[in-house]
Amino acid sequence: MAAETEKRRYISSEELGKHSSPSDLWISIQGKVYNVTDWVNSHPGGEIPLLNLAGQDATDAYVAFHPASAWKHLDRFFVGYYLADYNVSDVSKDYRRLVAEFTKLGLYEEKGHGVLFLMSFMSLLYLVAVYLVIGTKNPWAHLAAGGMMGMLWIQSGWIGHDSSHYNVMISPRFNRLAQILSGNCLTGISIGWWKRTHNAHHIACNCLNYDPDLQHMPLFAVSSKLFNSITSYFYERTMTFDSISRFLISYQHLTFYPVMCFARINLFSQSIILLLSKKKKVPSRWQEIVGIIVFWTWYPYLVSFLPNWGERLTFVIASFVITGIQHVQFCLNHFSSSVYVGNPKGNDWFEKQTMGTLNITCSPWMDWFHGGLQFQAEHHLFPRLPRCHLRRIAPVVKELCKKHKLQYSSVSFWDANIMTLRTLRTAALQARDLDCPVPKNLVWEALNTHG
């Protein structure tokens, strides 16, 4: 053993940090150093997680996102070096112990029957909505059908979300089919776009310059730090804070819900932009494109059965407004939590995930409504864990946070809305009071006079 130890070659964290570019990308996992430069474009989770944690120890993130079966593939990337100053914090030790315990208990493999019930419910919603459009002439029935379509999209979104983290079906092939059907075909949103965006969000939870879920300039800003026109590393552009941004952000607490009612339009556009992009790699791009075409075939065709343009518009608006509830839910989990600027780190995983998330307290019978995201801290810490176990492990996570004096926030759905609006209003008032002047127009003056 001593002879083996002497033969080991070591590098420092500083030296590891020099290998942090796309053309020279090293990471460390449990003290061993790996060169994943040639693996970036083939990584099932996309290139963004590797690029964001390049040149760092990424053990906790790797443990969170990879099953035990993935460890055997690491050896082919080993460069022969070990990290000389590798150490594990007490928080990380406890976190990794929990992952191991949950694995031994089989929680990652036990998915329950939730998906079956959910898909049955979705099928019923779809069939009833189609019948109300085609088989009735009552305008109120048509309005109800639009609402059902929105509810269908919400539940479909939970399927798409879960299937991006773990196999909700019996095999990867059927899981992929569920993704394309529930995402692309049923809702018009590219599952490839969703996975790319969502993985970036998980790796850089509530990081203003890396987390796309907080990058909504010029419409919204959750922190005055965004007024410095920082760079989005996800969108590869500067989030410019100009006169238009200041005007819109100054009233963001008033426009939040109206914008959320039609936020799906942005998801449609982002999906199409990614799928048509020649620079971004999209796995199975043609599957994704065909799925989107299917949506834009059946949905307008269904709307065309309505008797007049007034009812058609009402149907579309109803479906958008109802599904806007889900967009609000996404925001509640993070908008009022702590944020930061800088590179995501691989050695404070547990701390960053808990400080950047907000749980929603609800009764078990309401779990279907929140899709598991009411246990946001648990989901971020154990993203591969089926949602049916999140309520079970919540007390364990809460106790671990208490042990290490870390933040664990959980409030009611009502209070979460109040906290989100308060955060938006605070940033809105800060946008109005900035010392740096920007050109104002008559509308600006009028609104501020009465505001």
Automatic annotation (TrEMBL):
GO molecular function: metal ion binding; oxidoreductase activity, acting on paired donors, with oxidation of a pair of donors resulting in the reduction of molecular oxygen to two molecules of water
Domain Cytochrome b5 heme-binding: 8-83
Single biological process term from Gene Ontology: lipid metabolic process
Residues annotated as transmembrane: 114-134, 255-277, 289-307
Pathway the protein contributes to: Lipid metabolism
Alphabetized Pfam families for the sequence: Cyt-b5, FA_desaturase
Keyword Cell membrane tagged: no
InterPro entries, sorted: Cyt_B5-like_heme/steroid-bd, Cyt_B5-like_heme/steroid_sf, FA_desaturase_dom, Fatty_acid_desaturase
Residue spans of biased composition, Basic and acidic residues class: 1-18
Keywords of the record: Heme, Iron, Lipid metabolism, Membrane, Metal-binding, Oxidoreductase, Transmembrane, Transmembrane helix
GO annotation, cellular component aspect: membrane
Keyword presence, GTP-binding: no
Membrane-protein topology: Multi-pass membrane protein
Region (Disordered): 1-21
Protein location: Membrane
Entry's family note: Belongs to the fatty acid desaturase type 1 family.
Name of the protein: Delta(8)-fatty-acid desaturase
Organism of derivation: Dendrobium catenatum
Gene label: sld1
